[in-house]
Amino acid sequence: MIDTSRGGPLAGIRVLELTKVWAGPYAGKLLAHLGAEVIKVESMTNLDEMRAYGGVDIDAAPYFLSINQEIRSVQVNMKTPEGLALVKRMVAEADIVIDNIRPGAMERSGLDYASLCRIKPDIIQVSIKMWGTDGPLGYQTGYAPCFAALSGLTALVGHEGETPKGMNIRYGDSSAGAAAALAAVAALHHREATGEGQFIDLSAVETMTSLVGDSLFAYSLTGHVPEADGNFHPEMCPHGAYPCAGTEWLSIAVATDGEWQALTRILAPQLGEEERFATLASRLAHRHALDEVLGRHTRRHAAAPLAERLRQSGVPAFRCQSSLDLCSDEYLWGRGGYRMVSDHRTGSRPIIGPAWRMQPDEAKVERGAPLLGEDNAYVYRDILGLTQPEIDDLVARKVID
Q: What whole-number distance in Å separates Cα of residue 353 and Cα of residue 366?
């Protein structure tokens, strides 16, 4: 039996996670936030690196806590034959298996899709790899910065005329994880309609390439290879982030001449009279000078009040929020963007919850990240039917490790 008390559209679905770091766990988290029961297979022998990031103990690492809410943890040493046998018994009780471990590892462990189908014919497997599981580069592995660089995105991020900056935030992982979760939901629909499981071969690089947009084919249309161009927009000017008082920044996007005139009335009336800034075409032609002039004026103001005055005049403008700003953002709290979850070490704490709101059946998100092996008893006793002496023996022989 699967606990469906949390509700949600995926209540009754069990997911087995053979994942590490971010991309695979992110997919599992999204499915858990939809109500699925997600069980993460891990061990001291082969620990998820995220449990070690942050210089704290393995049950309190910030990275791990941030991405594994409503996840169950079961310990099993997959490097032992008995451990692999236990994992295969877990597969028999699952609907979806997610993996993002090194290319070839699933096959060497007898956990490739053909083998999983012999265990459970309608199983859905989602395999997340850097280049997918086949093809000439299927053997390669990498991290999110690799995905972004290979996809073409890194070359597009940065200021005009400077070395591309790339992205420090791990968009490659979260984007691949979100795509994997979407594919898993689609496979569940397919299984409901046909009775067939599916193998989902997901390439993180291809996922990121799909985000490049029209720049992918720009050369064939324009003869120009797109490069990093800061906040440039061909149909809006000014369009960028401008310094304000202290260390604050303000994002402004002006699409029409009317918005431009409203901006100048609030910020610097004399700019509205300058011929070089009178039209979109002329502002684009002098955009670097315009950005410099605007920056001198915005520096005199605090970002939030100025943004509010501009918006009231019809100009899209918002303060660039820091992580500290986000933690106290009244709109995010008011909408329920943050959820309070239980934690074994700190009691109740806020997390960033799912971005969706579902009626009438939204899954509860109340449980923080699990301690290592927190759900051993549930998995081994309640799901697999082992007795306590059998479990104790597996622990003593470090099969449960």
A: 10
